[in-house]
Design goal:
By secondary structure, the protein is of the alpha/beta class. The chain is built from twelve helices and 13 strands. The strands form three sheets. The protein has a seven-stranded mixed beta sheet, with helices on both faces. The protein is globular and about 60 Å long.
């Protein structure tokens, strides 16, 4: 009765853990939730009444023209030139992964992904039957491995800026090298870039796709991490040859994205409110990142290794003596501590003893208590 691909449909481990992590008394490092103090405060009464009334009606599939123009302008400021006609507004960037999966993947389609990679992208690609090929990402992308794999795939999905889960940020030289390989082999490059604005030290280099000369490409970003996840608003920018297909797929999926959310974000960008909002949010995240770094150093230095993330929301922690991170997750949940097992981010299914620990949602005192609790579990 059901489509055969449903047999490949898996539940999101993040969503499953978050359901438990919302219990009172649980310290959670599991999700990727922004800090409650950093969420956007929306004053609907400040919105122009005529625009607010218009937002209640059906809208264009591509998204509101003004918002698409604002996105194109912001892209130009970071070295990525595109036209507003190349921008498609999404109901969250997760929708972009779904649309691209529908566009590019059939049963057995070879797709290159990083190892580790964003688990919800892996979930989508597997649902549509992708044959996933992995390139190692460990304090740098393995360019030689990528060069060997790229000729055999139809699409490469990469998260070059503060990657989820590893937090690694490709250098400009690495971005240019990957772009050159994509051009050489004509492989479609899908760049997922939701964490760019969350840079704590120096800004990230220009998007990887900005260095592509001839290969097809798709780029997407999100307003969830910078403003509020509940807005469910992201955007996708694509090579002109791909845009008509993506627009039709979007139309078939939901007609258009939420117009009220689009109005709110458009007004924020038009009135220059995003930068002041980030100026208030980034110190909160930097403080919590540093609090987790200090707690890890104090409690886990004998148990694990890690690097200080320059952006994003996660530490990628390599445990010395743990071979089953799912079992560790279950033990931690039994003691009201939520952690994310690294095996969930491995397309190969290999468990190398990594944990992804989110630092943005818990307060510094909770971070200290939670890491101390994790250390006690590892000592046991």
């Amino acid at each position: 009765m059901l489509a055969q691909r449903i047999e490949r449909l898996t539940s999101s481990l993040v969503r499953d853990i978050l359901a438990v992590a919302q219990r009172p008394g649980v310290i959670s490092f599991a999700g990727g939730l922004p800090a409650s103090e950093a969420l956007l405060n929306v004053d609907l009464a400040a919105l122009p009444p005529e625009l607010l009334a218009n937002a209640m009606q059906y809208g264009p599939t591509e998204g509101e023209r003004g918002l698409r123009e604002h996105v194109a302008e912001r892209m130009a400021k970071i070295g990525f030139e595109c036209r507003a006609d190349q921008v498609l507004i999404l109901n969250g960037s997760q929708q972009g992964i779904d649309l691209v999966s529908k566009l590019m993947i059939e049963e057995g389609t070879p797709v290159l992904v990083e190892e580790p990679a964003y688990l919800a992208a892996l979930q989508s690609f597997k649902l549509f039957g992708a044959d996933l090929r992995t390139v190692p990402l460990h304090q740098g992308v393995d360019i030689d491995a990528l060069a060997a794999i790229l000729p055999s795939v139809q699409m490469a999905y990469l998260t070059p800026t503060f990657q989820n889960p590893s937090a690694y940020c490709y250098s400009e030289a690495e971005r240019k090298a990957v772009a050159a390989l994509a051009d050489t082999h004509g492989v479609c490059l899908f760049e997922d870039d939701p964490y760019r604005e969350l840079a704590y030290d120096t800004p990230a280099p220009a998007p990887l796709v900005s260095f592509i000369q001839s290969a097809p490409w798709i780029y997407q970003g999100s307003f969830s991490k910078t403003l509020a996840p509940g807005l469910r608003l992201g955007f996708l920018i694509a090579h002109p040859d791909l845009m008509p297909h993506l627009i039709r797929l979007k139309q078939a999926a939901d007609l258009h994205s939420n117009r009220l959310s689009q109005l709110i974000v458009s007004q924020i960008l038009a009135t220059g409110q995003l930068e002041p909002h980030l100026a208030k949010s980034l110190p909160i995240y930097r403080e919590r990142r540093d609090a987790m770094a200090a707690a890890l150093q104090q409690h886990l230095s004998n148990h694990a290794t890690w690097s200080l993330p320059a952006g994003g929301l996660f530490f990628w922690v390599k445990l010395h003596c743990v071979s089953d991170t799912l079992a560790l997750m279950r033990r931690a949940l039994a003691q009201n501590l939520a952690i994310m097992p690294g095996v969930a981010f491995m397309a190969s299914g290999r468990d190398d003893g990594y944990l992804r620990l989110n630092f943005s949602h818990a307060k510094p005192e909770q971070i200290e208590a939670g890491i101390a609790q994790l250390a006690a579990l590892l000592t046991e």
